[in-house]
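thought: user wants a sequence for this fold. calling inverse folding tool.
action: design(structure=
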């Protein structure tokens, strides 16, 4: 069995356990027992349980992104000690000189959560600093900063304003999807968003235009 297959086996074992038990109650020993592997194999692939949770998300999302988008649109992390540079985590779809369409990405993100709804509902309830919710903010705030710089093009905006917009919209996305996912009455995370699929990037573009207009005046 190859490394990826082994990682998927342990990931699926963890997801199965998480559907029956609280995440904080599941130990590495439980995961290796359920997967038929051993602790040495687990720690060969993952630093800890938090690392496994992040990898499960990244692998689930990457599968949908690679299926739905052309390679040139996929965004990968730069390689470093904590990155997963082989798994795309975002997309860059240009629709104009200063315009981006993120609707397809947000649909893929929602479908990633929807496909393992019971598991991700539990994972996203946690406000643990090493949890999935915190990881999503850590991952997508810088991604949105890059998008804002693209939308700005040769226009200027203070670094603090760029950071504010990125943090605001990343937080809005994560909170909205987590709340919808954790609400048992909501069957489809994006059921109400279709007419506003590109609301994040359209809103950023609009706010930048307004800010630039006020500066001119």
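)
observation: tool returned 217 residues.
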């Amino acid at each position: 069995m190859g490394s990826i297959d082994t990682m998927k086996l342990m990931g699926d074992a963890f997801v199965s356990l998480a559907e029956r038990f609280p995440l904080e109650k599941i130990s590495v020993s439980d995961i290796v027992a359920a997967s038929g592997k051993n602790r040495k194999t687990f720690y060969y692939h993952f630093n800890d349980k938090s690392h496994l949770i992040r990898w499960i998300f990244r692998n689930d999302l990457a599968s949908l992104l690679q299926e739905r988008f052309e390679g040139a649109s996929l965004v990968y992390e730069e390689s470093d000690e904590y990155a997963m540079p082989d798994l795309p985590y975002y997309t860059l779809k240009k629709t104009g000189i200063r315009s981006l369409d993120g609707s397809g990405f947000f649909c893929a993100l929602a479908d990633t959560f929807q496909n393992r709804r019971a598991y991700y509902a539990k994972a996203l309830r946690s406000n643990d600093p090493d949890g999935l919710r915190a990881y999503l903010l850590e991952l997508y705030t810088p991604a949105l900063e890059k998008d804002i710089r693209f939308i700005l093009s040769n226009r200027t905006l203070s670094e603090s304003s760029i950071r504010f917009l990125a943090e605001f919209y990343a937080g809005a996305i994560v909170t909205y999807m987590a709340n919808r996912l954790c609400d048992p009455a909501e069957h489809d995370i994006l059921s109400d968003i279709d007419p506003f699929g590109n609301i994040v990037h359209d809103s950023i573009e609009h706010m930048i235009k307004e800010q630039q207009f006020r500066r001119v005046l």
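thought: summarizing for user.
answer: Here is the designed sequence. The first helix runs from residue 3 to 18.
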